[in-house]
Amino acid sequence: MKHRWLLCAALVGCSTEVGAPQAIVDEVLTTGQINGSGLPAKTVVLTYDDGPDDHTLELAHYLADQGVRATFFVNGRRFCKTFDEAGKCTVPQDTRRCTNGQMQAAVAMPKYYPESWLDEVRSLGHRIANHTQDHCHMPGQSMEDAIWEVKTTQDILDRHICDNVFLLRAPFGEWNATVVSRVNSMMGFTKIVGPINWDVDGNDWDCWQKGKSPQACTDGYMALLEARPNKNGIFLMHDRPEFNVTYEGPLLMAKLLVPRLKAAGYKFATMDEVLKLTPKPAMCPMAPAPDAGPADAMMTGSADAAAPAEAGGTATDAAPSSTGGAPGGSTGGASGGGTGGSRGTGGAPGAGGDEGTGGDEGGAGKRASGSSGGCAIGAASSPATISTLLAIVALVLRRRRR
Fold first, then answer.
1. Which whole-number Å values give the CA distances from 179 to 139, 150, 184, 226, in the listed order?
2. pLDDT, tens digit, for every residue of 174-196?
């Protein structure tokens, strides 16, 4: 087994560096919610809920370029299980009506995104986390529904989280002892940390519903932050504008908020720092190559008429969109480069079919891990690198013969 691991490390560049957060194995979903009040003065953590949406990847790239690592709490229903050859979503993720009724604004033409989105966001240094499948009021759900809402999204995330840190935020911040008992009763859920709450909520969703400018919305958040005794805390924002889906307001606001915070002397922390996680070795898929940019365009597709409707909307043949070809080094490259392909390691093929979701191989001739993780493979290697790899293979084989 040791030889096999060395061979994997040599051939596909698996990371063995220390620095990923400590695995959490105790029961950690609690009645009380976690906030950022313990952060140092003038320190903030940015979090985004309800995505993905059309501008989420642009937002993630912008934040990464600014040295900001955010946490994206996603709703599992936003993702697509299967795309056809034209890039259209034919089988969206499962969804069900909330026990107490749908609690998000109805969308007549729901959009769905590939799971490769999760890998790209994570590869930029952000965290991806659980915001339940359908954004229901959790205290109003039956035991079966409460477990299903958390587990269905967690099953998606488990294919893309590689450092054993699993976070959850309750929709609407609604949580109680009954929900804790129900969710913790599900075997395997003791790995989830949360619920993660917030300290600064400027109701950006209301800004986009009422047509307020990104500048006005930014002003509202800054006023709340500066009124706090230590001027610190976790920001609650939404990369999917609830009442104006696909609007670029969250991206525009970030481009105003981040420079303003920096100019005022604020520091950016992460959820890891809030939770005081300790380093532990982890194996994660390699990040995209430096010369690989974001997808060139969004693929538009349509769900079948039988697909579940978004938040009370009617199922439709309308055109949901998903990210296009992933950048070099990101997930879903064609030609079997995804995990489980002819040269990948373990796992299943990239989401969306046997060849992953993401179309072409991406910039700089790089192939990358499929949706279930694994190690990326550089399509172009130097002769010296190839010779070294072949020598290692020969050494391993000789040892096995002995």
1. 6, 11, 8, 34
2. 999 999 988 888 766 678 899 99
Task: Quickly list DSSP for 164-191.
Answer: S-EEB--GGG---HHHHHHHHTSTTGGG
C-beta atoms surrounding 365 within 10 Å: 12
What token pair was written down for 269?
């922390």
Q: How confident is the model at residue 339 (pLDDT cuts 50, 70, 90)?
A: very low
* CB neighbour class for 246 (10 Å; exposed up to 12, middle 13-18, buried from 19): middle
pLDDT for the residue numbered 285: 52
Question: Which residue's structure tokens are 């313990």?
Answer: 38
C-alpha 59, offset from chain centre: 12
What residue ranges do the domains of the chain occupy? 18-280
Beta-ladder partners of 352: 82
Smallest CA-to-CA distance from 376 within 390, 395, 391, 362 is with: 362
Q: What is the mean pLDDT of the chain?
A: 73
86-102 per-position pLDDT tens digit: 989 999 999 998 988 76
List CB contacts of 282: < 8 A, sequence separation 6 or more. Answer: 15, 19, 20, 21, 162, 163, 164
Quote the tokens at residue 252.
């525009």
Q: Where are the beta strands (DSSP E) in 52-126?
A: 71-74, 80-83, 89-92
| Closest of 222, 253, 195 to residue 73, by C-alpha | 195
**Two tokens, residue 224:** 């709340």
CATH of domain 18-280: 3.20.20.370
pLDDT tens column, 207-261: 999 999 999 999 999 999 999 999 999 999 999 998 899 999 999 999 999 999 9
Burial level of 368, CB count in 10 A (0-12/13-18/19+)? buried
Partners of 29 in the β-ladder: 194
Task: Note the pTM of the prediction, 2 decimals.
Answer: 0.69
Q: Which has more pLDDT, 173 or 368?
A: 173
Beta carbons within 8 Å of 106's beta carbon, 6+ residues apart: 309, 310, 311, 312, 313
Task: Tell me what the mean pLDDT of segment 292-308 comes to.
Answer: 38
Do 180 and 215 meet the contact criterion of CB atoms below 8 Å apart? no
pLDDT on residue 151? 94
